[in-house]
Amino acid sequence: MALSFMRKESEATPEAMVFSDNFAAMDSLAEDLDGEIGADKWVEVSNTEADEVFDEIKRDQTFVILTLSSDDEGEVEACAELIRKASNAELLVLLVIGDVSPRTMHNVMRAGAVEFAPYPDPPGALQEAINRLRVARTQGGGALGSAKGKTQRSGKIVGVYGVAGGVGASTFAVNVAWELASIVRSEGRRVALFDFNFQYGSIATFLDVPRREAVYELVSEAGNLDQTGLMQALSSYRDRLHVLTAPRDALPLDIVAPSDIQNILALARDAFDYVVVDMPQALMGWSESVYSAADVFYALMETDMRSAQNMFRFIRSLKSEDLPLNKLQFVLNRAPGLTDLSGKARVKRLSESLGIEFAHMLPDGGKQVVNCCDQGAPLAEVARNNPLRREIAKVAQRAITLVTTTEASADSA
Ligand SMILES: Nc1ncnc2c1ncn2[C@@H]1O[C@H](COP(=O)(O)OP(=O)(O)OP(=O)(O)O)[C@@H](O)[C@H]1O
Ligand SMILES: [Mg+2]
C-alpha cells in the first residue's frame, strides 16, 4: 500500500522517498531501510505521486529510491520514465533492482545514470549504495557515477599517533574528528576519519559504523585506487563524518607501501576539507608518508615511564630522518588535575627531560569515556559536559587555526 507523500507534511524532512509500486521484496526492503535510514526518515510513495514529489523535494536533503523487480514491459517503461523525470529534476537517485534480465537492466540503465543496488543480494550492497548517495549529497554533486558538479577540495591532514598502546589515541582521533565536523558543518566543509591501524583498528567500534567490504580492496589495491573506490569504502557516522574503518579481517600493516598511502591521502585531500588519520603504534615504512603529508600531527602520551621512553625514541627517529618537528603537537592524556601537586611536578620534569612543551593536557574523563567508546558514540553526543570532551573541543578549534595559519604563512613565503 502506498502511503501519501502529504501524510508526513508536518514531520521532519525525510531522507528518502521510496517508489515501490509492485516491488516483490518490499517487506524486507522496508526492514532494511528502517535499519539504515530510520523508520521515520523514509516515505513510501506511489508512481502516480511522482510529479508532485519531484517538485517538492530538495536534492541536498532527500534522495529518491526507485525499485524494479520484473521484466514486464509496462513496469520497465514506468521505471525508466521515473528515472528520466528524476534526472531532469537533478535529483539523486538510487535504483534498487530485483531479479531481472540483462535486457531489462540495459533498458533502465539507458534511461539515465543513477546509483544502483542489486537486492536482496549481495548483502550490504544497499547500505553501500545509500552511503555513496549520502557522500554525493554532502558533496553537493551528482551521484558518484557522474562527474557532474564535483568540487575539488584541498583538505588538511591531521595525524594522530599514540606513542604507547592504550594511551587514548583512537579516542582522541574520534572525538577531534567529530568536533571538527560539528564546527565546520555550517560552512559546507567535510571531514573524514581514517583508521590506518589495518590490524586492530577500533574506530568502527568507537563509532558503531559498519566495516565495508570495499575497505579490503582499498587496502590491498591502494596503488590503483580512484575516487569512487575510496568513497565506496567509507562508512558514514550520522551523515556528518565519513569514516574509513579498518578492514573486517586483520591485515599485516605492511600490506600498503608508502606510495599507496600517498595515493589514498591525495584522493582524500580532493574530497574532504579535513582528514583525521589514526595511526598504528608500530612505525612502518609508510608512517613517514603520513607524517610528511600531515599539516598537523598530534603525538599522545601519558605520564608513565613507558610513554616517556617511547616519546623520546619517536622524536629521535623523526630527527634522524630530518623530518620537520614544527607540525608536532604534544598531547598529555590523563594529565593530573589542578590539585595534584606531585602529579604536576612530574609533568614538569617529564617535559623538561624530553625537551618538549605540551600543547594540550587532557583530563581523565572517567568511566563515561569508556562507556561512550563502548556505546559507539562521540563524547559530544552522550557526555557533552565531560571534561575530556570540553578539552578536545578546544583541540579541534585550535587545529583549525593552526592549519589555517600554516597555510597563510606558506602562501606568503
Ligand atoms: N582521558 C581519558 N579518560 C578516560 N578514559 C580514557 C581517556 N582516554 C582514553 N580513555 C579510555 O582508554 C581506553 C584506551 O583508549 P584508546 O583505544 O583510544 O587508546 P589507543 O591509544 O588508541 O589504544 P591502541 O594502542 O589500542 O590503539 C579506552 O577505553 C578509552 O575509553
Ligand atoms: Mg587505537
From TrEMBL:
GO terms for cellular component: cytoplasmic side of plasma membrane; cytosol. GO terms for molecular function: ATP binding; ATP hydrolysis activity. SUPFAM superfamilies: CheY-like, P-loop containing nucleoside triphosphate hydrolases. Keywords: ATP-binding, Nucleotide-binding. GO terms for biological process: negative regulation of cell division. Coiled coil: none annotated. Transmembrane segments: none annotated. PANTHER family: SEPTUM SITE-DETERMINING PROTEIN MIND HOMOLOG, CHLOROPLASTIC, SEPTUM SITE-DETERMINING PROTEIN MIND HOMOLOG, CHLOROPLASTIC-RELATED. This is AAA family ATPase. It comes from Thermohalobaculum xanthum. The lineage of its organism: Bacteria, Pseudomonadati, Pseudomonadota, Alphaproteobacteria, Rhodobacterales.
